[in-house]
Amino acid sequence: MTVLYFAHARRAAGVDSETFPLSAPITSDALWELLIARHPDLSALRASSRLARENDFLAADASLHPNDEIAVIPPVSGG
After folding, report:
1. Do β-strands 69-73 and 50-53 pair in parallel, antiparallel, or remain unpaired?
2. What is the fold of 2-73?
3. Which pLDDT score, from 0 to 100, does residue 77 have?
4. Partners of 72 in the beta sheet?
5. Which of 3, 44, 73, 74 counts the most CB atoms within 10 A of its CB?
6. Residue of 78 and 65 predicted with greater confidence
7. Nearest to 8 by CA among 56, 75, 77, 78
8. What is the pTM of this model?
9. Percentage helix, strand, coil, to 5, in the chain?
10. Average per-residue pLDDT in the chain?
């Protein structure tokens, strides 16, 4: 699985993207646990950030597959 980090999530993780070698599907919540274990600073963003796959935001119990590309999207504002 490839995870892409944007804005504040990129700063918290210290990388733009990374790959997780998964052999079976996991839930969005389980992915958050993996991300925070690897990058503890992401814990501050979890409540306000969303995971997305193919331009769709994911529910906490969404099933994620090893070949998915997932984006971590923190709150954004703009004009």
Report:
1. antiparallel
2. Ubiquitin-like (UB roll) (3.10.20)
3. 63
4. 5, 51
5. 3
6. 65
7. 75
8. 0.91
9. 30, 30, 45
10. 94
Are 41 and 8 within 8 A, CB to CB?
no
> What distance, in Å, lies between the first and last C-alpha atoms of the chain?
33
pLDDT digits (tens, 9 = 90+) for 37-53: 999 999 999 999 999 99
Tokens, residue 18:
């990374």
pLDDT tops 90 at residue 30: yes
Among 60, 66, 54, 73, smallest CA distance to 24 is for 66
Stated as kind and residue range, the H or E segment containing 32 is helix 28-38
Residue given tokens 């052999």 in the structure block: 23
Q: Which two tokens stand for residue 78?
A: 């703009």
Place of tokens 């700063």: 11
* pLDDT at res. 75: 85
Q: What one-letter code names the amino acid at 62?
A: A
